[in-house]
From TrEMBL:
One Gene Ontology MF term: methylmalonate-semialdehyde dehydrogenase (acylating, NAD) activity
Keyword Nucleus: no
Taxonomic superkingdom: Bacteria
Alphabetical keyword list: NAD, Oxidoreductase
Gene3D superfamilies referenced in this protein's UniProt entry, alphabetically: Aldehyde Dehydrogenase, Chain A, domain 1 (3.40.605.10), Aldehyde Dehydrogenase, Chain A, domain 2 (3.40.309.10)
Pfam families: Aldedh (PF00171)
Record GO biological process: L-valine catabolic process; thymine catabolic process
Chain ranges of the Aldehyde dehydrogenase domain: 20-479
PANTHER family: MALONATE-SEMIALDEHYDE DEHYDROGENASE
Organism, scientific name: Actinomadura logoneensis
EC main group: oxidoreductase
Protein name from the UniProt record: methylmalonate-semialdehyde dehydrogenase (CoA acylating)
Enzyme Commission number, as recorded: 1.2.1.27
Amino acid sequence: MSKHVTHWINGKPFEGAAERRGEIYDPAVGAVSGSVDFASSAEVDAAVAAARDAFPGWRDTSLSKRTSILFRFRELVHAHRDELARLISSEHGKVVADAAGEVARGLEVVEFACGIPHLLKGGFSENVSSRVDAYSILQPVGVCAGITPFNFPAMVPMWMFPVAIACGNTFVLKPSEKDPSAAVRLAELWSEAGLPDGVFNVLHGDKAAVDGLLEHPDVKAVSFVGSTPIARYVYETAARTGKRVQALGGAKNHMVVLPDADLDLAADAAVSAGFGSAGERCMAISVVVAVDPVGDELVAKIKERVAKLRIGPGDDPESEMGPLVTRAHRDKVASYLDSGVAQGATLAVDGRGTPVLGGGADGFWLGPTVLDHVTPEMDCYKDEIFGPVLSVARAGSYDEAMRLVAANPYGNGTAIFTNDGGAARRFQNEVEVGMVGINVPIPVPMAYYSFGGWKASLFGDSHAHGMEGVHFYTRTKAVTARWLDPSHGGVNLGFPTNG
Ligand code: NAD
């Protein structure tokens, strides 16, 4: 039976007919499995109004009450993690184990947000002048919007809303239209946890819904995660309309392998980080930079491992890699195999011939592919492919490898594989990216650190979650207070004069 996904506004499913809808696919079969409503401007207004009306009550809800709701939400998401993972896998295509992993990483942010009473403590300075105290308080900003990509339909929204809501804001989430169901299930679990109606809303749709949120005067902060062109657009538009904005963009993550590295460890890492979730991760390794003379040996080890990867439907426990999200995306990713070869790369592994265990013949399949001898002028190097295509570039030295990483416009994650602590330390110090792995291919920060890239991978100042998330979702107020004290002679007119 075909499912129908609609908005979640003011604590319940939206009742009404959508003017426009999108199709949801089962990527392993290649067929439509349902439809999702696309918001018109009236529905954008309804979601934002629900969030605006819920804000005063939620802002004034005590920290202990907020925390107890967050703890209940944490328990509910944990209890429903398998169901959520299956839902994600059915629309995204990733294997259920990967989907469960994203729910677990999202839960870590909820757990971080459970500590909000501690995180929201301000500063206090007693007696800045005679009987004058100064202190700062962190207050919520109001209605916050989150606009998220298809590749982590639970985890990326959970980078945002647990922190925003814990800080006392209300939230409108616009998830990807390609896999919209997890967001609605999370909304239901919030309600079950006791979150008041209107504090968390889900609005589905495409550019029209996003533009409605960006232009809406009652939306005060926008968190975006997606591709770089849209991140730049969201950043510029939201800033022009006076909102605070953090917009995380695309990536081209390099993994530098120095000659002294453990090549088995490096090959394992390249394969899991290159092909996990079919390469549809913003932290996927897309370029291995092999520093001479290890290139040939490393590629041979990668090929050995790729040959053993099992490709199949996400809900088959035997599958290690699922299909891509849509047919159009699969075809675009596959086009880089031809262009790479035409531009001089070597096809070390051609994923077009990889056998698929089960699934439909029309599923959006592309097996793991390795392009060797890739150079910076090639399209497969310049573009973010966002699929199971691992490029291998060769560098003559550490300095040449560093120049390659530095010249790349993206700066999300980067890894170095080496047994030389000095080289690793130099790399960590010099490299121009937001997240660095040392013998760790996908250095996604823990929830209590913050996630974000540099350069074309982030527009704005704040990374997601951790203390940067708390600062993004709060405004600071500095108070200077003087109380008259009769026991000390009443009126005190002393006051700082400088400032
Ligand atoms: P996308 O940019 O196409 O879409 C992201 C969101 O923007 C979706 O909600 C979509 O509906 C909306 N959108 C799409 N086109 C729009 C337009 N013209 N105007 C306004 N809104 C629009 O990204 P995607 O394909 O869903 O996700 C993959 C991309 O996300 C990759 O580039 C990946 O690197 C990036 N990503 C980045 C991070 C990070 O942390 N930096 C994390 C995950 C994904």
